[in-house]
Amino acid sequence: MDKARFIQMLDSDSRDYSNRPLLAEAVTEHPDWILIVLEKMSAIENKNSDMSARVLELASKKDLSLIIPYLDKFSTLISKLKLDGSIRASSKIIELLCVEYFIRFNPFYVKILNNKCLEQFTESCFDWMITDKAIAIQAHSMYSLYLLGTKYNWIHTELVQNIQRNLPKGSTGYQNRGKKIINAIKYDRMLKLY
Known about the structure:
This protein is an all-alpha fold. It is built from 11 helices and no strands.
């Protein structure tokens, strides 16, 4: 796929979800195209921005290291996102990065993910937790915050309070994940969901 076709497919209003894997594959073949994807994501009110976010998520699942050269841009962008599709995809990317850092102790990610980046993840995840977001966003954010709390102790206190406040009105999935995280914090044991 050439660059012009890639951009045309990202901009398409057809919402053809079968194109997302093709676009993600194109990003893995041309990692510098992540800049195009991030640019499209930054059009936060545009309904196609969530398509770009999903493409970035799929490409990150294939090769998470692709996002590293653009981590500052991604970290700055996430707090501005408005569409649930963009936020859900971004929350999953954050979760993948946190797993590499806190569960797998991957030295590459431990070195690259600096305090500023981790603080931006924390801020965005808490924002998504306290607003009325879809369960997938809340679940990814909850787990990322749990992992971030292993480095920044204050996060666990705030996270438990937030989960407890939302448990009664949360879905079954929210309640299940929330209780697991509260118990892991309470009994000081590592919760590995991957």
